Amino acid sequence: MLRQFLPTRKRDFDSLSEQEILALAISSEEDDGRIYRSYAQWLRDDYPDSAKIFDEMAEEEDDHRRWLIDMHVKKFGETIPLIRREHVKGFYERKPDWLVKPKGVDEVRKQAAEMEAQACRFYAEAGRRTTDASIRKLLGDLARAEAGHIGTAMEAEKNFTPEDVKASEREMEHKQFVLTYVQPGLAGLMDGSVSTLAPVFATAFATHDTWTTFLVGIAASVGAGISMGFTEVASDDGVISGRGSPIKRGLTTGIMTTIGGLGHALPYLIPEFWTATILAIAIVFVELWAIAWIQNRYMETSWGRAIFQVVLGGSLVFAAGVLIGAG
């Protein structure tokens, strides 16, 4: 009974056999073909040229799937293992259609270009890990085919110019920076700032001892930083997801988690209780609003959602710590 509530263990990409790589590629191509047909259906009335492009891309995904199935039958027989994206650690995910379509045709094209870039990266990495010559050749051909679709998906009705290419490269560099540093750092800052509020302020109001509160804050911050850092390193090797080095992400997460907790722990080096507490509370609100700003600036989160998630949530955790300590 409890098994259904436990997290599903994911496979490392490096642990997949050649048969499992082919099976994963087959299921991925099937999913992408369905997504492109959905995009085409939605665009057909208002953007017929773009709809035609996505119809053609869906047909090409079907061709890729057939090539992969033929290779699997040739090498391993007709029984294809069931393995999907969600079964592999760090493997890219697809946004549901209902999240992409309401944002307009440009968002659809952008999402399609990202899908092709992710598929290209997957086939390139899979090919490097394959020893069978025919499978390696097929995966390399598919990587080149997916790479050729990126521009088509992003700009269905115009040709790329050198300026377009430069702009695309700048956008990819910015996205890599966000994935490798901003996203892990933001997760760490949020965890460090919010998760340490309750123990720090509960200790403060329970003991009115600034030194004890400082020690609790330091312990909570450093402990959370170590835990978050190792969790980030273990969560994803960055090969398929494109999120970059796990060491860089782990260090970023761990350091920002520790900083997030230290911000409101350091004021308790001041011996006078209420001076330290008022300063710590002021720092907490600065931290929470800074996190909301980073979410809005880099993660494209609306101000309303960012405030609800961070400021309101952090305020509730802070209040819980004060009430527990004062009680």
Topology:
Layout: H1 18-43, H2 48-76, H3 97-100, H4 105-128, H5 133-154, H6 162-195, H7 197-207, H8 210-235, H9 246-262, H10 273-298, H11 303-326
Helix pairs in contact: 1-2, 1-4, 2-5, 4-5, 6-8, 6-9, 6-10, 6-11, 7-8, 7-11, 8-9, 10-11
Task: Describe what this molecule looks like in 3D.
This protein has 327 residues and is mainly α. The protein has two domains: 7-159, Ferritin (Up-down Bundle); 168-326, no CATH class. The chain is 74% helix and 0% strand. The protein is built from eleven helices and no strands. The chain has helices at residues 18-43, 48-76, 97-100, 105-128, 133-154, 162-195, 197-207, 210-235, 246-262, 273-298, 303-326. The longest helix is centred in the middle third of the chain and has 34 residues, at 162-195. It is elongated and about 75 Å long. It starts with 17 loop residues before the first helix and ends with a helix.
Sheet bearing the most strands, described?
A: none
Number of domains: 2
Instruction: Supply Rg.
Output: 24 Å
Q: Classify the secondary structure makeup into a structural class.
A: mainly alpha
User: Overall mean pLDDT score?
Assistant: 79
Tell me the fraction of residues in β-strands, as a range. under 5%
Low-confidence sequence ranges: 1-7, 156-162
How many helices does DSSP assign? 11
The percentage helix is over 70%
N-C termini distance: 38 Å
Q: Tally the beta strands.
A: 0
Order of helices and strands: HHHHHHHHHHH
The backbone outline, from C-alpha atoms, is elongated
